[in-house]
Structures are given as structure tokens and as C-alpha cells.
Design goal:
single chain; about 400 residues; alpha/beta; Aspartate Aminotransferase, domain 2; Aspartate Aminotransferase, domain 1; 14 helices; about 40% helix; globular; disordered C terminus
């Protein structure tokens, strides 16, 4: 009898009891808006920003409505000129080029390597050819490129780096946390990320001017003095008049839910690393699969896992996905010409000028992805890996046409 998995790839753990209690306190107060505080009271949103800044090791943090709005605010806060070109990964999710477009920039897509990170040689070539002075670097699916090399390249070329750390909260390169290499960093607390508030995000930076512009853009009006992880009043002298209001504030309810999760993030990252390691080991037993080798320099937090199956034919790829689904394993395929759910690739971003990306297309054509929620057990991960192997083996050994193998 074929193995099947009965779990749910989108099932997250409950919010910690401390978060539920804090959320109830906020609801009972009625003061959900971050600036609706009593005299002498500090809002949950301001406390969360202080906590997150301390965790990351930076002076300034702003909580926003989403990771996508965090990127839009960050691009505006670094004063991206309208119509300016912005370098970014070709392999990413649509909110990344979407943020560039919304901020008035023009995305320049950079090739992806077989290791699923930005191609640094192509980055250098396109930086020179385009004249772009901004890089929105997406640490897609939790994979870090050589951050020292990218930082050095940006320094030489006068490029401002904004890090998209939606998938790398807790990750590091040579012990230095993701989000501390660029001028600005953006994080997400959407349900499937490392902290869960349904929707939410952060902008972090060490630059007082950038943070002042970000806070005004987020919709502080003239209440910026109610932030803790923020620069002094002098930094707002011009920003308060020059920066447009985007009304993208995080509310106190979501902040209350997040603070206890942040306190347990280190333990959660270790748990993700364990589950990822078990699933990775199982998948490496499967003939014909290629997984990224995590560099020694990288501290990886795998809340999802990716593999390539280069020996599958074009016709058998959708059969493989459907067969795995019939046995309870949800695979996302990044090579499809049509977007599905949250998954898309550059050919479906029609607001971006069409660009030739043959290496990225080749990598994505056989790239598959799975979520690894903390509701999974190690036994679940072993079973999932075995099912993937069985499905791939069934297709490879069937000798049948795709419709028959289905």
C-alpha cells in the first residue's frame, strides 16, 4: 500500500498563551491603534519595535502592516528617485518586484545560481550596465548568498542595499545576522514566516534619517515621539514635512501577539533546523534529486525546503506534483508559466519589462518547494521524504506516458 501523509502543510502552532493573554488585554482596553495610549503608557507596538531592535542588534525599528509594505516604505525612506532602476533577484516572490514598482522604481532582474541565491557575477554586470544604485536583495526561501562579497560589491559601486529578510529571520552569515548587512532591512510576520501575526512586518536600520522618513511614511503624523526604537526629534525636522503618509502602521493587537513569539524565536529556529535536517537527509537518499549544500559560513533557518529534479521531463513535472498531492505532500513548482497561489515567476509579472533570464529559467524549471511548519514531527519529515522518493521513482520507473502515469 502506498505511503500517505495525513498532516497539513499550512497548519501553524497556536499563539502562545502569553500572546493570547496580551491580546485580550489590548482588546479589553479598546486601544488597538498604536498611538491611542493613556498618559505615560507605552503601546504594545512601540514595545515590540524596541524588543525587535534589541534582538537584531540595531538602534531603530518600525512595525508595519506587512513585509510588502515594509519594503515599499524602505525604498521610499532611502529616497529612491522615481523611475530609478533597482536590482533584485529573478528568483523571488512577487511582493519584491511589486514593492519596487509601487515605490516608483524599475526592477532589473538578476540571474539565480543552482544554489538558489543571487548570481554575484550577473549582479556586478547588471549593476554596471544599468547604472542602478539600489539593490533590493531577496534572501529567497531562507538562502543567503556570500554577504561579504555582495556588501563589498555594493560599496565599490555605490549601491544602497535593502535586505528582504522575510525568510531569514534568525539566519546569519559568519555569525552576523541577516538584516544587518544593508542600509535597511525588511522582515515579515505573515502567518508562514518565523513569527506569526497573520500579517505584519518590520523595517530596521542604523540610519536615523532613513528611520525618521520611514516612521512618517508609515503614518505617524506628528506622533513620532511615541516610538522608542527611533531617533530623536531633530531627525524628523524635514522628514515630517517631506515624507508622504502611506498609513501602514502595525496595530497593538498584532504587536501583543508577536512579543511572546519573539522571546521564543531562538528555540524555534533550532527546532526548524532540526526538522530541516531530518527532511534534507531523507531527500538526499532519493536518486535524481539535487538539494542546496548549505555553506559552513551560513546559519540557516529552514522553514521551507527546496529541491531540483532535473531528470523529469516537461510532461512529467505536473504529474509528479499531482502524484505527491494525492499522497498528502504539497509541492510548489516554481517553473510554471502560470502563477499558482503564492508561487509565480518573472514571466507572469507583466508590470516588469520582459527580461531574458536563461539560467534562472533553467533552475526554476525543475525546482520544487515544501513548507516545513513546526507542527511537523521528525517522523513526519521522514515520511514526507520517503513519499517524495516513491513518487519520483514511480514516474521514473513506469515507462508510461504522463497521462498513464497519472
Amino acid at each position: 500500500m502506498a505511503k500517505t501523509f495525513g498532516g497539513v502543510f499550512t497548519q501553524q502552532r497556536p499563539i502562545p498563551e502569553a500572546g493570547i493573554e496580551a491580546a485580550v488585554r489590548v482588546m479589553r482596553s479598546g486601544r488597538l491603534h498604536r498611538y491611542n495610549v493613556l498618559p505615560g503608557e507605552v503601546s504594545e507596538a512601540a514595545l515590540l519595535e524596541q524588543d525587535f531592535a534589541a534582538w537584531l542588534g540595531v538602534p531603530y525599528c518600525l512595525a508595519t502592516t506587512s513585509g510588502g509594505t515594509a519594503m515599499q516604505i524602505a525604498l521610499g525612506a532611502v529616497e529612491l528617485p522615481r523611475g530609478a532602476k533597482v536590482l533584485t533577484n529573478a528568483f523571488t516572490l512577487s511582493p519584491v518586484p511589486g514593492a519596487i514598482h509601487q515605490a516608483g522604481g524599475v526592477p532589473v532582474l538578476v540571474e539565480t545560481t543552482g544554489e538558489l541565491v543571487i548570481d554575484i557575477d550577473d549582479l556586478a554586470a547588471k549593476a554596471e550596465a544599468s547604472g542602478a544604485k539600489h539593490l533590493l536583495l531577496s534572501h529567497m526561501r531562507g538562502h543567503l548568498a556570500d554577504m561579504e562579497a555582495i556588501t563589498a560589491l555594493c560599496d565599490r559601486a555605490g549601491i544602497t542595499m535593502i535586505e528582504d529578510c522575510a525568510h531569514t529571520m534568525g539566519a546569519a552569515w559568519k555569525g552576523r545576522k541577516s538584516g544587518t548587512f544593508g542600509k535597511v532591512a525588511c522582515f515579515s510576520t505573515q502567518t508562514y514566516k518565523h513569527l506569526n501575526s497573520g500579517e505584519g512586518g518590520f523595517v530596521t536600520t542604523g540610519d536615523a534619517g532613513v528611520m525618521a522618513r520611514a516612521i512618517i511614511r508609515s503614518g505617524s503624523y506628528m506622533l513620532y515621539d511615541r516610538h522608542i526604537a527611533a531617533p530623536g526629534a531633530d531627525a524628523f525636522a524635514d522628514a515630517r514635512l517631506d515624507s508622504p503618509n502611506c498609513s501602514s502602521r502595525m496595530d497593538n493587537l498584532r504587536a501583543a501577539i508577536l512579543r511572546p513569539q519573539l522571546a521564543q524565536l531562538a528555540a524555534d529556529c533550532e527546532a526548524w533546523q532540526t526538522l530541516y535536517g531530518v527532511l534534507e537527509a531523507e531527500l538526499r537518499k532519493v536518486p535524481g534529486l539535487i538539494l542546496r549544500a548549505i555553506p559552513n559560513e551560513e546559519t540557516h533557518v529552514g522553514s521551507s525546503i527546496q529541491f531540483r529534479a532535473p531528470n523529469l521531463t516537461d510532461d512529467h513535472v505536473p504529474v509528479f506534483v499531482a502524484l505527491a498531492a494525492s499522497r498528502g505532500v504539497e509541492l510548489k513548482w516554481f517553473g510554471s508559466h502560470e502563477p499558482h497561489g503564492y508561487t509565480s515567476r518573472h514571466v507572469s509579472w507583466r508590470y516588469v519589462t520582459e527580461q531574458a533570464l536563461p539560467r534562472t529559467d533553467r533552475v526554476l524549471s525543475r525546482l520544487f518547494d515544501m513548507r516545513v511548519p513546526l507542527t511537523f514531527s521528525e517522523a513526519d519529515c521522514r515520511l514526507i521524504g520517503a513519499i517524495v522518493g516513491d513518487c519520483l521513482g514511480e514516474i521514473a520507473g513506469s515507462g508510461k506516458a504522463p497521462e498513464e502515469a497519472r
